[in-house]
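Title: Comparing notes on inverse folding

I've been comparing how different people in this forum approach sequence design from structure. To keep things fair, I'm posting one structure and asking everyone to reply with a full sequence. Here's the target:
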């Protein structure tokens, strides 16, 4: 509390904000429990759940065998039985082992049962590259999941979203997948106190601008903001849109931004072919074609498995310089 008795901003990290969200969920609802590989004694592969086992015990913080299909299936069953499970999958690459459970069970049961079987399940997983973890731990596959009807797909990027998106996700009657970019866990900053729920349907303007829209999400947001700073020194005003929700996409926010700037760069760490960037570009063409003063530019990862060697990894991923160059192609 400050001297005026009001809550004050405090220094924290993305990892700590996620942990605080988990702690609040476990405290506020006895139906909530956390399960996954190494979430208990080890504190989570990325340290997000560190200390929660000691605080809530093994009934609420459950280490599971190394079988994604099994423990995601168990989470679906628990959700059907009235619990509110939070399932952690170590990386998005490993989630492919549970894809059958997610696509054929979690996403479809409400529809196939005529509305009788909601699956209020939250699945958290780490995504993205930039940490030299090689191809089997570094891909960005959230666009695959954004293709699936029946689920909600979120990508919290800021400290506020990391802290406040979990509660409304748990309240959602449908399955919610939360993608946490691994490069963000150590991101530090001031977390403002908030009692206002974070909406799960809307994109956010992270920086207003008038000359070009930089549309992105997740781990590419800091790069887009850095590109906007660099462009500003050259007299180009870039608006930065953080999608936040990948399914459903906020078409209204995208359309409004294009109407303001008339030029667009879409940044997506996934591969270009069949990507979320392709979907956003297609929607812009469908809804805002006559607002465009230049073709939509896309900045995506190279069409290769993510390399291990640092310089090769950096070359394969979208970088700030690539975003600036794409903006210049659109503006110049």
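Reply #1:
Here's my take.
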């Amino acid at each position: 509390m400050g001297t005026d008795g009001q809550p004050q901003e405090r220094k924290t990290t993305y990892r700590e904000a996620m942990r605080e969200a988990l702690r609040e969920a476990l405290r506020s609802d006895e139906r909530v429990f956390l399960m996954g590989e190494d979430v208990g004694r080890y504190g989570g592969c990325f340290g997000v759940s560190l200390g929660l086992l000691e605080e809530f015990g093994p009934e609420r913080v459950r280490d599971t065998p190394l079988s994604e299909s099994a423990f995601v299936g168990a989470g679906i069953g628990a959700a059907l039985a009235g619990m509110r499970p939070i399932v952690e999958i170590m990386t998005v690459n490993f989630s492919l082992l549970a894809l059958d459970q997610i696509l054929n069970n979690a996403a479809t049961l409400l529809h196939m049962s005529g509305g009788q079987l909601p699956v209020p399940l939250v699945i958290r997983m780490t995504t993205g590259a930039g940490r030299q973890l090689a191809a089997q731990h570094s891909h960005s596959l959230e666009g695959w999941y954004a293709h699936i009807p029946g689920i909600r797909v979120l990508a919290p990027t800021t400290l506020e979203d990391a802290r406040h998106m979990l509660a409304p996700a748990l309240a959602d009657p449908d399955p919610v997948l939360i993608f946490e970019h691994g490069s963000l866990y150590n991101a530090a900053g001031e977390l403002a106190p908030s009692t206002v729920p974070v909406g799960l349907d809307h994109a956010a303007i992270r920086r207003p601008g008038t000359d070009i829209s930089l549309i992105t999400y997740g781990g590419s947001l800091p790069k887009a903001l850095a590109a906007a700073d660099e462009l500003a020194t050259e007299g180009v005003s870039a608006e930065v849109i953080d999608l936040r929700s990948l399914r459903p996409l906020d078409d209204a926010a995208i359309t409004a931004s294009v109407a303001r700037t008339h030029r667009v760069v879409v940044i997506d760490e996934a591969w270009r072919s069949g990507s979320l960037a392709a979907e956003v570009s297609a929607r812009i063409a469908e809804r805002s074609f006559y607002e465009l003063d230049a073709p939509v530019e896309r900045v995506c990862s190279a069409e290769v498995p993510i390399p291990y060697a640092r310089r090769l990894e950096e070359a394969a991923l979208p970088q700030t310089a690539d975003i600036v160059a794409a903006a210049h192609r659109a503006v110049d």
